[in-house]
Every structure is written in C-alpha cells, then in structure tokens.
TrEMBL record:
Domain Serpin per the UniProt entry, residue ranges: 1-229
Single Gene Ontology MF annotation: serine-type endopeptidase inhibitor activity
Gene3D superfamilies in UniProt: Alpha-1-antitrypsin, domain 1 (2.30.39.10), Antithrombin, subunit I, domain 2 (3.30.497.10)
Protein name: Serpin B13
Family designation: Belongs to the serpin family.
Coiled coil: none
Pfam family, one: Serpin
GO CC aspect terms: extracellular space
Annotated InterPro entries: Serpin_dom, Serpin_fam, Serpin_sf, Serpin_sf_1, Serpin_sf_2
Signal peptide extent: none
C-alpha cells in the first residue's frame, strides 16, 4: 500500500428545531422522484407563524428557513415550483445572474442563503423525514479542486509538502468528501468529513402559504452570515 498520509477534516452537527414538529401530526404520504416514480414517505407537518419565507420568481422556486434552538445555524429549504424542476433550479443557483448594470453578481445560491431576501409569513410546512448520504455518500473532489486552481498538489513532480514531512516525492492522489444529513420531528443531524447579482425578486404571497415538500428540493444548513456548514 503506497498511501503515506491521510489528512482528514470532520464536522458534526446536531440541532433541535426551535419549534419541533409534533409526531402525532406526521402522516403517510408519497414523494415524487425526478423520473416520476412515487416513493412512500413519512410527511411531517407544522403550522408556523412569522416564518422566514420567500417566493423567488426569478428561479421559479420558493424557500423557507427553519431555526435551531440555541444555535446561529439555520436550515434553508428551496423547493422548485415544478415536480421535475430540480435540475434546472440547480443550474440557475450555481450561475451568476445579471445586475441592473448588466454584469454578473453573486450566485443565486448566496441569495438563497441570505435572510435579507426573506419576509415573515404564516406557513403550513409539510416536510418529509429524510436521510441523505446513506450507503457510500463519498464524492471525489479532485476535479473541483483543479478547477479552483489547486493543481500542483496532485503532480508528483512539483508537489511540495516539505513543510509537513521529510518524506520526498509526496503528492495528493485524491481528496474525498463524505456527508450525511438526517432530518426528523426533533431536528437535524449532519456530519461531514473531507479527506485530503442579482437581487432575487421575492414577491409577496397570500397571507397563508402551503409549503409541501413532496418532490426533489435543495437543502442547506448555514449560519446567520449565509456561510454553509
């Protein structure tokens, strides 16, 4: 085995909802997958007043933000208006949009994670219990790092780790990221490990909003500055 060193970075988070879901309100329901198939799920329900909500017309999606007890972290849920709209939504939130001056600004993703675009609304939230990352959730980040300009560490001829070890000709063969997220009535539990503008138009909605998460969506945990976990 030629591996000389493994560098690991790990994150663990377990948050309790500020306002938990009542287990007695959880019902059997169905979730529509991208290919149109239906999957049986447990659908939680909570009526919330004064909840952070936004209808992002520019990207044809709506979002809610849920807070955790005694934490600056929040969970953001972005739901495309169409059942099959997730691929198009992902393309939009990871690209720059036009500003009034015609130039690119912050990605839509940054706007999604900024509470300045949300307003307080009365929301009926239907959210499935779910766990993301079961099995083998690892993702190889080599290509991503190279696109960011981090390439020398992968080249055995130019990589330089002399500040860390006396071993010569040391280079990085792979960087792997692994993440798990579990959500239920009490809160969210997340673990992650890594080995080594536009101004969105947020329109007002009717006084009470039904936010039913029964098709593919985007979920993120971020702090009050919009920095993802």
């Amino acid at each position: 085995h030629r591996t000389k060193m493994v560098i690991a970075n790990a994150i663990y988070f377990k948050g309790l909802w500020t306002l938990p879901f009542e287990k007695s309100d959880t019902r059997d329901s169905q979730f529509t997958l991208l290919d149109g198939r239906k999957k049986d799920i447990k659908l939680m329900y909570k009526h919330m007043e004064g909840t952070s909500f936004c209808n992002f017309q520019n990207i044809e999606a709506k979002a809610v933000c849920l807070s955790f007890k005694e934490s600056k972290l929040r969970m953001f849920i972005l739901l495309p208006n169409r059942e099959d709209g997730l691929p198009q939504l992902l393309n939009k939130i990871f690209t720059d949009g036009p500003t009034p001056h015609g130039k690119g600004d912050k990605p839509y993703l940054d706007m999604f994670l900024s509470l300045t675009h949300y307003y307080r609304e009365e929301v009926n939230l239907y959210l499935p219990r779910f766990k993301i990352g079961e099995g083998d959730p690892s993702v190889n980040l080599n290509d991503t790092m190279m696109k960011l300009g981090v390439s020398k560490i992968f080249d055995r001829d130019v990589a330089d780790f002399s500040g860390m070890t006396d071993v010569r000709r040391l280079f990085v063969s792979s960087i792997v990221h692994c993440a798990v997220l579990e959500v239920d009535e009490e809160g969210a539990e997340a673990a992650a490990a890594t080995g080594i503008g536009i101004m969105l138009e947020c329109s007002r909605r009717p006084k009470q909003v039904d936010f039913k998460v029964t098709h593919p969506f985007v979920v993120a945990i971020a702090d009050d500055q919009g920095t993802p976990l």
